[in-house]
Write a structure and sequence with these properties.
The chain is an alpha/beta fold and 339 residues long. Among the domains are: 99 residues; 69 residues, no CATH class; 31 residues, no CATH class. The protein contains nine helices and eight strands. An eight-stranded mixed beta sheet has the order 7-1-4-3-2-6-5-8, with no helix packed on it. The chain starts with 8 loop residues before the first helix and ends with a helix.
Length: 339
């Protein structure tokens, strides 16, 4: 060992300790809080879907994904895209998400955490296929929360527009009017109290009424096609015909008793009807007898003459009985009127 040289053991130990601390600190700096195990279901055996939002404000990782009032998954991550934000959600493997699902960001309370709510489309329930792993819910099927700046601007507009002042003036006016009509206000309060007490004491009747109303609404919902037919032009015409028929029947049915009791007058009526039918039968026979000569007159004589009117000269005689038709034929032949 050389004179004046320091021992190397303590220096090496100090260097090793410093290096170990540096490595430990650097490894701790790379740890992400979201990567640490957290309480609750992590849905490791589930599948991922991507939900597109225009904005998600401060949606945290591991936020709940709720459908039909039940938590069905958690938010794994959020990635900013050109058209918005892609939210990757891990869904329980036993849950099927319809392809027409509508996603919205909600809060259970004012100060509560934001979560993703999945709402079914009741009009197409059971008619769509479920989402597969890594499928996407498009931006057209999502609703993003309003921007915080817009909310503050609307609130400032409400405050600065004088609405609060008008509300205050209204309350002051009510306070000024109320003391002058104290008895009326007390009477209204007593009446409302009695009505509310009556409702509270008969809440079972109210429940039955609401149940009956709900059943009636369900029946009407199931009979919507029938209502559509009733209020169509064909249904309205059926209503009109039924109404007219009802008027006639309401007039006829009460008269049946009087007709039955005073039916003796039907005998001469039926006799007169039989005589009239006999006369009509004889008229028919007479008409059939006269029909043939009249038919022959018109078809054989009148109609041919009317269609081809002509006159055939058979003979021409003088007053003393001489036949001169030959001379007429010679004259007509000389004129060229006959061949």
């Amino acid at each position: 060992m050389m004179r004046g040289a320091r021992p190397a053991g303590p220096r090496r130990t100090f260097t090793a300790v410093v290096s170990f601390c540096a490595v430990t600190m650097s490894s701790c700096a790379a740890i992400n809080v979201s990567a640490l195990p957290q309480p609750g279901n992590s849905y490791r055996g589930g599948y991922d879907i991507v939900i597109e939002f225009a904005n998600v404000l401060n949606l945290p990782d591991r936020a709940k994904v709720v459908m039909d009032g039940t938590t069905v998954g958690i938010v794994e991550s959020t990635n900013i895209d050109k058209g918005g934000v892609d939210v990757t959600a891990r869904i329980d493997r036993s849950v099927e998400i319809p392809s027409d699902i509508h996603a919205v960001l909600q809060q259970a309370t004012i100060l509560g955490d934001i979560f993703v709510a999945l709402d079914r489309d009741q009009a197409t329930t059971g008619h769509t296929h479920p989402l597969k792993p890594n499928d996407r819910v498009p931006l057209s099927q999502t609703t993003s929360p309003p921007q915080l700046e817009d909310t503050i601007a609307n609130l400032a507009n409400f405050v600065a527009s004088g609405s609060l002042q008008r509300i205050q003036n209204t309350i002051i006016g009510i306070n000024r009017v109320t003391p002058e009509r104290t008895e009326q206000v007390r009477a209204i309060a007593r009446r409302m109290s009695a009505d509310l007490s009556d409702i509270g004491n008969n809440i079972d009747t109210v429940d039955k009424w609401l149940t009956g109303l709900a059943d009636t609404v369900n029946v009407m919902t199931n009979d919507i096609p029938l209502f559509q037919f009733w209020f169509s032009p064909q249904g309205l015409r059926s209503f009109d015909i039924s109404t007219r028929t009802g008027v006639y029947m309401s007039t006829l049915i009460p008269s049946i008793g009087s007709i039955y009791l005073g039916g003796y007058w039907l005998v001469p009526f039926l006799n007169s009807m039989g005589t009239a039918m006999g006369a009509l039968q004889k008229s028919k026979q007479a008409f059939e007898a006269e029909w043939r000569p009249w038919h022959k007159l018109f078809t054989d004589l009148y109609l041919p003459e009317d269609k081809y009117p002509a006159m055939n000269i058979i003979s021409v005689q003088t007053p003393d009985g001489r036949e001169v038709s030959k001379n007429v034929q010679d004259v007509l032949r000389m004129l060229g009127a006959v061949p």
